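Sequence design from tokenized structure. All designs in this work follow the same two-part layout: the structure record, then the generated sequence. An example of the structure record is given first.
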């Protein structure tokens, strides 16, 4: 299939896939928050060996690897690239943190306002606005909920995502992105290293920012796989034979004949086959706005609120429906009042650059 129309919103299904990925996370977390246990019947587990929420997160990293690499190659300057990435991540994050601390927390906390605002938990939670070293608890909040008092467990992925952006910037500055074969060689080195030295790699922690490789390396490899699919975009065909090979690899992984990391090149192929499908064309899915990031940011605290206030515990299906119904308005708010306005500054910074 021809993929020359790369990241234009009117030539691919990326917007739909992002919403689907955020929905996978919401569905997986519905069972976690409601019952404090994973889905009994989880398609992600059955097909790929990891949960629906993990599948959603990895899809985000795959798409991000593709689009961020494209963004870097088409940048006007390195500073503009970094600013654009910050505009995508930070404004919506800052707003959801402030709302959690000053609205949700002050209304629901079971401790006094003095204790609440002087607590280390509150001060640490506000540090989430800086992105690194995420904290998840506020004093006196959700203490009786089944999953525990975490306010927004979904935030954990954001520093790892932004670290991938930094990697692209550093690799690009070092001219390692200039040649697709160099990019492929680096990926093979990282991929092989994790297969043979996983125990050693999992013990690595980047000081100060607190990035631990045990959590980081798998999403990082999927991000790099997405980046590679961009670098080799004119050499890859998305067709029946490719899907057949992916299916065979998935079966070999599932039956234990291949290391589970061999799914890393498979999942991106499936994602991009759908993204560039000439049969399914959901090109205008986000015509009212890109609600995926807001859906991802607000779903977990909304789900905690549903469980906290529900007079009768809903069943899982009702929990999923309620989660969508009550989270979507926040996602719409986040896009139209925060994200969209923040992203409009991209053009202003470009004009300021000589």
């Amino acid at each position: 299939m021809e993929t020359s129309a790369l990241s234009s919103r009117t030539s691919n299904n990326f917007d739909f896939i992002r919403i689907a990925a955020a929905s996978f996370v919401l569905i997986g977390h519905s069972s976690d928050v409601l019952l404090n246990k994973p889905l009994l019947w989880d398609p992600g587990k059955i097909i790929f060996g990891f949960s629906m929420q993990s599948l959603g997160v990895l899809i985000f990293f795959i798409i991000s690897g593709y689009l961020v690499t494209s963004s870097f190659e088409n940048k006007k300057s390195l500073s503009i690239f970094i600013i654009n990435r910050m505009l995508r991540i930070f404004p919506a994050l800052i707003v959801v943190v402030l709302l959690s601390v000053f609205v949700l927390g002050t209304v629901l906390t079971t401790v006094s306002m003095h204790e609440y605002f002087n607590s280390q938990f509150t001060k640490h939670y506000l540090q989430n606005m800086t992105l690194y070293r995420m904290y998840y608890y506020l004093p006196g909040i959700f203490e009786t909920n089944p999953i525990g008092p975490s306010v927004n467990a979904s935030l954990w992925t954001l520093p790892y995502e932004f670290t991938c952006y930094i990697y692209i910037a550093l690799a690009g500055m070092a001219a390692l992105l200039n040649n697709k074969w160099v990019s492929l060689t680096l990926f093979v080195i990282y991929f092989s290293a994790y297969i043979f030295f996983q125990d050693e790699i999992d013990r690595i922690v980047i000081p100060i920012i607190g990035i631990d490789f045990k959590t980081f390396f798998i999403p990082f490899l999927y991000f790099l796989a997405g980046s590679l699919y961009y670098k080799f975009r004119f050499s890859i065909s998305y067709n029946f034979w490719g899907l057949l090979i992916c299916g065979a690899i998935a079966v070999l992984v599932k039956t234990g004949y291949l290391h589970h990391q061999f799914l890393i090149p498979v999942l991106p192929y499936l994602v991009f086959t759908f993204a560039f499908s000439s049969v399914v064309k959901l090109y205008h899915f986000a015509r009212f706005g890109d609600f995926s990031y807001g859906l991802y940011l607000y779903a977990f605290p909304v789900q905690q609120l549903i469980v906290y206030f529900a007079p009768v515990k809903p069943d899982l299906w009702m929990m999923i429906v309620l989660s969508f119904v009550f989270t979507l308005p926040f996602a719409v708010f986040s896009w139209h009042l925060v994200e969209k306005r923040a992203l409009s500054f991209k053009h202003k910074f470009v004009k300021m650059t000589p």
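The mean pLDDT is 91. We note this feature because it recurs in several other targets discussed in the main text.
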